[in-house]
Amino acid sequence: MQFVLRLRPDLHALLNGVESGIAKPGDYDFDTIQAFSTYFHETIHWWQHSGSISGLILSLSYPSQTHINHSYLKRYLDIVGPVKSIKKYNELNAKEVNPEDDEFKTINIILNNFHDIEFFKFRVIVPESVKKFSNDSLFESVGHSFHIAYSSFINLLSSCFDRELKFFPNAKDWGEGFEKLSNDKVEGYYHGSSIGVPPVGLKEIYEGQARFLQMQYLFFASGGKLTWDDFEELGMLNGVYYKAFAMFLELTETERPNSIDSPIVALFLLILDLAMNPGDGFPFDIMHFESFIESVDPGIRFFFLCRMVPLKHPELKGYIQDYSSSEYFEASELLSKAVVCPSPMKIASLISRWAENEPSLIKLMEEERKFEFSEENQPIRLIFSRFIRYQQDKLSNPAYFCWTGVYLAGNKCTEESVRLFNEHEALFKDQADGDIYPRLFADKDQKSVQSSFDKFYAWVATYNLCRQWIIDDGDFSYDFWWLTSKFSMDELEAWASAHFKNAFGVQPQSFRVLNDA
User: Considering the entire predicted model, what is its pTM?
Assistant: First the structure.
């Protein structure tokens, strides 16, 4: 929710001696290369959140919780007034309110919209958390949460780029399909239905990809000398970082290979890429409502993709030898066809065609080129433009974005590899002082970059205060020192309050804060 790449101070100290961009093996000692590999690991996380389908939906779910509720929050102010929190107000007053009353309906919409997206986030990131929130009075079903999260995401994007729904999926048409599933008591789509939990979630998928790409980089940087024992000694094969790979070996009925440079590891990384890039619901329309959860949930996708290897395509265990784009294309198409879902290449191709042919997105990418974004919904424009840029480059270089460690060390490291890494470095990063700064672009005016940074985090502050207004008890907090230490608390409060007032017409300081009395 902070949209920032952070590193420990000791890593900053080591990397201060490295030229910006990729640290090439042979140019620095192993400690520096290892420090850079951590930066590389964190950059992969940035790519996951800004370049993958699952990451884009998660990244925009935070803004969605404000944007989808904006008109209802203003209505709440008209009916109830500036009262915090909405959750507490509902707890204290809902029983005394007529269910048909506009006040009750408005509050119910706000809380349900917010929590449905929240439930979706928890379910895909840490699936077992569903056991905790399944008894929440606001939880309907996994399918309902997925429906609301996806439709909110589509509606947010379409309000910015496709108001007439000429090319985005029409999420407004989905209601009837999901309602039928609920009425027909289809498992996963009605209140009280059983809830399946996949063996891994996005947390393990994301950490597994980042860790194994990091090890891949270190392996090739060492000239192929590092072994599993070396990585074990470095503390890189434990917990959340290794769980997805252990599950992959079990599900594909495979022994751990002798080396990190193995077709088996390459296949694991390919399956992770496929798992985190579902195409149903976005950018393609929903093909089959009844299997929507299985089609888009990354953990379930990971499970089925792994099982397709021994059941349908055991030849893939030894297929990836050269880490080539042709290998990526063939293997990804086979596995995508096996689970009846669009492949990452079909996804990237469609998004790239949109960017080339749709006037609203042509305009957006011109804004991205200059890094001068329209004021309206600026964070959405910035995030989506970088997603498109990533997908365009992935379409041209699929192997690079799947097996990046191979292409940043060893004899596959080229000027194009370095260019791609530098192009997709995190937009916002902390420095040794702990403050967040915009990255430097070689081809963009830094004043425009700084201005975009300032506007982006003004919106983030509003999202933060809006979240507090809906669910947090007590006074508003203006602790934005995670962003900058260069201003006093009073200055941060004035800054955040001004932007909140611009969005809702009232200052946070004027809110009446409820307690249990």
Answer: 0.95
